[in-house]
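Allow me, if you will, to draw on your knowledge of protein folds for a short while. I have a record of one protein: its chain in single-letter code and its fold written as discrete structure tokens. Could you please explain, in whatever detail you think fit, how the structure tokens follow from the sequence? The record follows directly beneath this note:
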Amino acid sequence: MAGSAGGRRLKVPPKGTRPTSDRVREALFSSLEAVVGLDGLRVLDLYAGSGALGFEALSRGAASATFVESDRRAADVLKGNARELGLSGVTVVNRTAEAFCATPGEAFDLVFADPPYAVKDAAIGSVLTALVSNERVAAGTVLIVERDARSAEPPWPDGVEPLRAKRYGDTTLYWAQA
């Protein structure tokens, strides 16, 4: 991790989680800081796992991060990581990404979606569509979806413009903006 929590390691849930590699995370955040900056942003980390992406954003200046994780054990690890790091602005939601995005609520400025690679493109498309239709994204929100490099680009909903895709070994990051 970089920023205010630099050098700290996160605990990872015992199984079922594929954390974003350090190399991919560093490249992602270097690009984010150059393109949009992170200061004061409201971040949504869907399929959060250990929370690496959301915690990195907080460590680099984001105002808040909401972590959505369906697995109870992983949500407990997230809460422990939040306590250990001592970062403010953390909300952990133990729900599926589908259920969270299906309800109206706070709008976010930056959205990370790092679903398990087994999650089908149609399911990701449904989550992204629900985000937009339930006004969970603000004007200009940047959405980043992490997928297996062999996967197709996510099916972006109307009103979301694809920006770029960048491959890192067996991982591809897809960027879009609402």
